[in-house]
UniProtKB/TrEMBL annotation, chain A:
Annotated protein name in UniProt: Pyruvate dehydrogenase E1 component alpha subunit
Record keywords, A-Z: Oxidoreductase, Pyruvate, Thiamine pyrophosphate
InterPro entries recorded: DH_E1, PDH_E1_Alpha_Subunit, THDP-binding
ATP-binding as UniProt keyword: no
UniProtKB/TrEMBL annotation, chain B:
Native organism taxonomy: Archaea, Methanobacteriati, Methanobacteriota, Stenosarchaea group, Halobacteria
Provenance organism: Halobellus clavatus
Gene3D superfamilies associated with the record: 3.40.50.920, 3.40.50.970
CC cofactor: thiamine diphosphate
One Pfam family it belongs to: Transketolase_C
Gene Ontology MF terms: oxidoreductase activity
InterPro entries: THDP-binding, Transketo_C/PFOR_II, Transketolase-like_Pyr-bd, Transketolase_C
Keyword Transmembrane helix attributed: no
Domain Transketolase-like pyrimidine-binding per the UniProt entry, residue ranges: 9-184
Protein name: Pyruvate dehydrogenase E1 component beta subunit
Keyword Oxidoreductase applies: yes
GO biological process: organic acid metabolic process; sulfur compound biosynthetic process
Protein origin, superkingdom: Archaea
Keywords: Oxidoreductase, Pyruvate, Thiamine pyrophosphate
Length: 346, 336
């Protein structure tokens, strides 16, 4: 049984994430119409939205503390929201504003919020090794914090992932690898690029527990993640989880998805983890009015973040040259001691 | 009299036409990459090829760049002619060992007994706010390491002729196409890259730079997208009576130093424009190459390149670091 407060928190995260993606989609497309032009409109660059992935974000992050590290891939918003990333500053970053998490330098694929130990990045599977590194630090310092690396099912063929599994296994690191299986890697269906139906089986070769959550269900994810995160926190080593999620939108905004059968699109739209969790909440005694309140609160929070972000100043061009180093280029010193290296004899 | 060519193609269509031509002529030519089959390449680099040649010759591959780029090396060494695509050049990092320790070195290390007749294609370039991990050109990175011919088309005409030569070449060729030039619906190209393209097959030799605009006062050497920005600058400079000669390098390896030196001997002024990082890169190399051969001819030199920072996301920041026509014009004016 999952406590009602936890179900409620997950629901709040998930409806926030869903509304966030839907609103970002609207904002993004504005100015890119009628002919879609990626370099126009209020949100710069590429945009990968995670509608349909919410259960994987909420169900895992529900077990995490601020000091537990999470690395997410190019489709990061639902995980960031579940991890507690500052929504306003994240949104400002996505809009390319000066007060964004990275002062407008990183963008939607490169969000960093050290306050809650969150980062994401755009090269497939590249978050896996740093997650292992966060686990390594926890182990060396003998703390009970853990690290979680998210990746797509398309990323399980990448060396950085496979090497990290081995590294985490051999050093018994407190890491959970979470595969979000949405059946697609851009236009490539899973069966075209791997013979493995269940990606969690990759764990077998590394003598690590692997488990697949076959339904897009926040409670099922929560249960699987409780075990995996608990195992890591108790210093019993890494786990690999795979979670079936659904891609409700294109790979990126502007993706015509002409490669995708309509039936598949329709199926993804139907199996909705948010509705499923709403049913669980009703079964646990939450009435429709309360659910409606939760949704309204989430929507208000999203609106507030977007309004705030759009109001923020754009970065001064000169700032492009700042933030390269933490120390000055000369290092921790700008002077060199005057030794007598000749030993004083002349 | 040469026949007049009127058919115009986008750069992506011209690139695909060359690949299709070579695939029809030789069963051993095949293409590997992510999203190259049904999608037709994220940047239209393989549009329509799967429909004609099927999944066996236009292969979607797992997101395992080390495996499939390395497999291209292996198949090439067996005598096949693979073309392998890095969707964005920025992803080279996950597979660089196969690229520079095998593809680039095997011919030399074998004393010339092994050849690697493959093409590595990759999309390069920014200007659409894709930020630090998806906007680089990395021209200098590939040109720096010996063993790869590195070519960069700036128009449809070049895209086709360079691709025919790349596939037929018995050495590894890195073919870097700029996303902004391809003529993709969602990423509108400037006017220049869509050009008349002969229907017949033709090859453009590597190491033959092209003078895209003649001028007497300043030599602007550039490549890729910045050929078009330099041409724009040249037009505006012409209004003030400054004659800019715009040289499109077309290949970095081999480098056509002769054409550059000949121009600088005439103008005395060299401005090198590049979308890659400034330090230890293309601009420095061009200046040094000219200095090696004709230091006396150089009255004035300017470099226009990315400052040494990762490419930022916000539009105002990216525009600050990637040179536009105005930046090129300003650099030229500083030399006058
Ligand atoms: C090393 C590398 N290769 C290719 C890409 C281009 N790319 C970005 S997302 C993507 C598909 C990822 O699929 P998946 O891992 O299943 O995640 P999803 O997008 O489905 O969430 C690809 C090929 C990349 N970013 N990095
Ligand atoms: Mg996927």
């Amino acid at each position: 049984m999952v406590a009602l407060t936890e179900l409620t928190e997950m629901y709040a995260d998930m409806v926030t994430a869903r509304h966030y993606e839907e609103r970002l989609q609207e904002e993004y497309l504005e100015g890119k119409q009628p002919a879609f032009d990626i370099s126009a409109g209020p949100i710069p660059g590429e945009l990968h939205l995670a509608a349909g992935h919410e259960a994987a974000g909420a169900g895992v992050c529900q077990h995490l503390r601020d000091d537990d590290t999470v690395t997410a891939p190019h489709r990061p918003h639902h995980v960031a929201i579940a991890k507690g990333v500052d929504l306003k500053r994240m949104t400002a970053e996505i809009f390319g504003r000066e007060t964004g998490l990275g002062k407008g330098k990183g963008g939607h694929m490169h969000l960093f919020d050290p306050d809650v130990s969150f980062a994401c990045s755009g090269i497939i599977a590249e978050g896996c090794p740093p997650a292992a590194g966060a686990g390594l630090a926890a182990k060396k310092r003998n703390t009970d914090s853990v690290a979680v690396a998210y990746l797509g099912e398309g990323a399980i063929d990448q060396g950085a992932f496979l090497e990290s599994l081995n590294f985490a296994a051999v050093h018994d690191l407190p890491v959970v690898f979470v595969i979000e299986d949405n059946d697609w890697a851009i236009s490539m269906p899973k069966e075209r690029v791997t013979d493995l139906e269940d990606g969690s089986k990759r764990a077998d070769g590394f003598d690590m527990p692997g488990r697949r959550v076959d339904v897009d269900d926040a409670v099922a994810v929560y249960d699987a993640a409780r075990e995996a995160v608990g195992r890591a926190r108790d210093q019993n080593g890494p786990t690999l989880l795979e979670i079936q999620v659904h891609r409700r939108m294109g790979h990126f905004m502007g993706d015509p998805e002409s490669y995708r059968p309509e039936a598949d699109q329709a199926a993804a739209a139907q199996r909705d983890s948010i509705e499923r969790l709403a049913d669980d909440l009703r079964a646990a005694g939450t009435d429709d009015a309360e659910l409606e309140d939760l949704r309204a609160e989430a929507e208000a929070r999203v609106e507030e973040a977007i309004e705030w972000a759009k109001d923020q100043p754009k970065p001064d061009p000169a700032a492009a040259h700042e933030d390269m180093w933490v120390n000055p280029p000369s290092g921790v010193t700008d002077s060199e001691p005057d030794f007598d290296l000749a030993g004083g004899e002349d | 009299m040469a026949e007049e060519i009127t058919r115009e193609l986008t750069m992506s269509r011209a690139m695909v036409e060359a690949i299709a031509g070579e695939m029809r002529a030789d069963d051993e030519v095949f293409y590997m990459g992510e999203d190259v089959a049904d999608y037709g390449g994220i940047f239209d680099s393989t549009e329509g090829l799967r429909e004609e040649f099927g999944y066996d010759r236009v292969m979607d591959v797992p997101i395992s760049e080390t495996a499939y780029l390395g497999a291209a090396v292996g198949a090439a060494q067996e005598g096949m002619r693979p073309i392998a695509e890095l969707m964005f050049v920025d992803f080279f990092g996950v597979a660089m060992d196969q690229i520079y320790n095998q593809m680039a070195k095997n011919t030399y290390m074998s004393g010339g007994n092994v050849s690697v007749p493959m093409v590595l294609t990759a999309a390069v370039g920014g200007t659409y706010n894709d930020a630090a991990q998806h906007s680089q050109t990395l021209y200098g990175t590939f040109a720096h390491m010996p063993g790869m011919k590195v070519v960069v088309p700036s128009t449809a005409y070049e895209a086709k002729g360079l691709m025919h030569n790349a596939i037929r070449d018995d050495d590894p060729v890195v073919y870097l196409f700029h996303k902004r030039l391809m003529g993709i619906g969602w990423l509108p190209a400037p006017d220049g890259p869509k050009t008349p393209v002969p229907e017949t097959d033709y090859t453009i030799p590597f190491g033959s730079a092209d003078v895209k605009h003649a001028g007497e006062d300043v030599t602007i050497v550039t490549l890729g997208l910045h050929v078009h920005r330099a041409l724009e600058a040249a037009e505006s400079l012409a209004e003030d009576g400054i004659g800019a000669e715009v040289i499109d390098l077309r290949s970095l390896v081999p480098l056509d130093t002769d054409t550059i030196v000949e121009s600088v001997e005439k103008t005395g002024t060299l401005v090198v424009v590049d979308e890659d990082y400034r330090s230890y890169g293309v601009t420095g190399e061009i200046v040094a190459s000219v200095a090696d051969e004709a230091v006396g001819a150089l009255d004035s030199v300017e470099r226009v390149a990315l400052p040494d920072v990762p490419i930022p996301y916000a539009r105002s920041l990216e525009n600050e670091v990637v040179a536009d026509a105005g930046d090129i014009e300003a650099a030229v004016r500083r030399t006058q």
